[in-house]
Amino acid sequence: MTDSSPALRWIDCNARVGRWSTPQPEQFTETESLLAEWDRAGIEGGLAYHASAWEWSPAEGNRMLLDEVAANERIRPCFVALPPATEELAPALEFARQVKAAGGAVRIFPKKHAWSVGEWCAGPLFDALACANVPLLVDIKEVGWDAIAGILACHPRLSLLVLETFYRIDRSVYPLMERHPNLYLEANTYGAFMGVEGICERFGAERLVFGTALPELETGGPMALVAYADVSDEDKAKIAGGNLLRLLGERE
Amino acid sequence: MESEASMSLMDHAVAGMPVDSLFICDAHTHMGPYFNFLVREEGSPAAMVRMMDRLGIDASIVSPHLAIVGDYRMGNQHVYEAAEQFPGRIIPFVVVNPNYPRAEVEAEVAHWHEHGGIVAFKFHSSLHGTDCLNEGYAPAYEYANEHSLAILSHAWNGEGGAIKVVGKLAERYPNVQFVNAHSASGWPVIEASIALAESCDRVWLDLTGSRLVYRGVERMVARVGAHRILWGTDSPFIDPRPGLGRLLCAELSDDDKRSILGLNAKELYRLT
């Protein structure tokens, strides 16, 4: 470094391991390549979910993820969850406690997996995650802002990290952030002009979490969004990795 | 401490340091507020230049949001005023709206020819609810052809698709260069853009986009060559930092990055 800014500790909240149906030739499907890309960019590690839990079977994919985590300590597990009524996974509270014990988080794909985030369907799952202090991650394309508002209204203790948003969201996100202190945004595709500064000024740097969406998206963009932000070094450190570690219950 | 000279371009991005050693031109930007979402500080020229300074961007070529929606003439006026306020940093595109009478569009082109000069045109046929074969664009095509200028279009849309549209226009206007915006916004778009570039050697590909797929730029460079790719960000429609970081961190040679980040725009738009 040429100035006195300390190097940031980068932890990725949004990576994927495993093979999936439509890889491009440039994309990788092997875990070693994820680790190599993290190395190239200087990313220490991060949360990953398994493609098979997304595209095939959450139960089987979560088991495959555990094998990956056992073999690679840089990967923290992001388990894919379902509502409990069909009993495809462990009972909600047991599942949430297993996730917590593994130092992980939970991701949901309600649209792709064809279930409702309404209380009548997913309420017990969200209750359990809040009770076990497990963060919930969801891609905005899987839910929508009204659904996010509904989840947070019913489960104010639940930490909810919204992934893969875009630049046209502030008119919905600002009022939600005002109401819900446990709402977080991935600082990646959230590309509103000076949006990082806006969130930091209005709601605090604690609300933004660095992620890459590897192997779908590339690493340099989200890193630059944080590194070039007009915020303090302390705030950058929170966004780059500190906030995710805090959400996972680890020391920053 | 590492000296700046020994830092790679990727090091600059990861450390958040401006790349002052290169000429960097953001060849696709806008300006001002927008109806559909919050643009902080109303996307003012001052806010844009402050961001450019933070990133090491030397120049931005600008078409105001107002010009690509309701009032192209007032939008053009705004960007020429900004260019006066920030000479060399803000460079105007002239926007035309083919839904207005030909005489008015001709007068607009003539006005900026006489008052500041025209570097290039920007079309937004999608927001103007038309396609690039609309005869209302003729005054701009004719001027660009006469002066061997480039036209940046949000999309080269029209009957038969982009390859046919550009094919027709390239035949009719042999001196015009065609810049295809948003060429890297996802794999299907990347493939379509590469095919367009392969169909006509006067097509340039602009990297502006909000979803930056893993190694998409690398595929474009491998197939088309870095010499016909332009770096742009859509700022302040979209924050420019992800687009810069994506390119600085790409697995490309520094020479390719230099070309894409600024030298190609310098050549195409004859920037001094």
Give the secondary structure arrangement, pairings included.
The complex is a heterodimer of chains A (252) and B (272).
Chain A: E1 10-17, H1 31-41, E2 43-50, H2 51-55, H3 58-71, E3 75-80, H4 92-101, E4 105-108, H5 119-132, E5 136-139, H6 145-154, E6 160-163, H7 170-179, E7 183-187, H8 195-203, E8 208-210, H9 220-227, H10 233-247
Parallel strand pairs in A: 1-2, 2-3, 3-4, 4-5, 5-6, 6-7, 7-8
Helix pairs in contact in A: 4-5
Chain B: H1 9-15, E1 25-29, H2 45-55, E2 59-62, H3 65-68, H4 72-85, E3 90-92, E4 94-95, H5 102-114, E5 120-123, H6 138-147, E6 150-153, H7 162-172, E7 177-180, H8 187-199, E8 203-206, H9 216-224, E9 229-230, H10 240-248, H11 254-268
Parallel strand pairs in B: 1-2, 2-3, 4-5, 5-6, 6-7, 7-8, 8-9
Helix pairs in contact in B: 5-6, 8-9
Fill in the keyword field for this structure.
heterodimer, A: alpha/beta, TIM Barrel, 10 helices, B: 272 residues, alpha/beta, three-stranded parallel β-sheet, 11 helices, 12% strand
Descriptive overview:
The complex is a heterodimer of chains A (252) and B (272). Chain A has helices at residues 31-41, 51-55, 58-71, 92-101, 119-132, 145-154, 170-179, 195-203, 220-227, 233-247; strands at residues 10-17, 43-50, 75-80, 105-108, 136-139, 160-163, 183-187, 208-210. Chain A is of the alpha/beta class and 252 residues long. Chain A has one domain: TIM Barrel (Alpha-Beta Barrel). The longest helix of chain A has 15 residues, at 233-247. The longest helix of chain B is centred in the last third of the chain and has 15 residues, at 254-268. Chain B contains eleven helices and nine strands. The mean pLDDT of chain B is 96. Chain B has one domain (23-268): TIM Barrel (Alpha-Beta Barrel). In chain B, α5 packs parallel to α6. In chain B, the strands form two sheets. Chain B has a six-stranded parallel β-sheet. In chain B, strands 1-2-3 form a three-stranded parallel β-sheet.
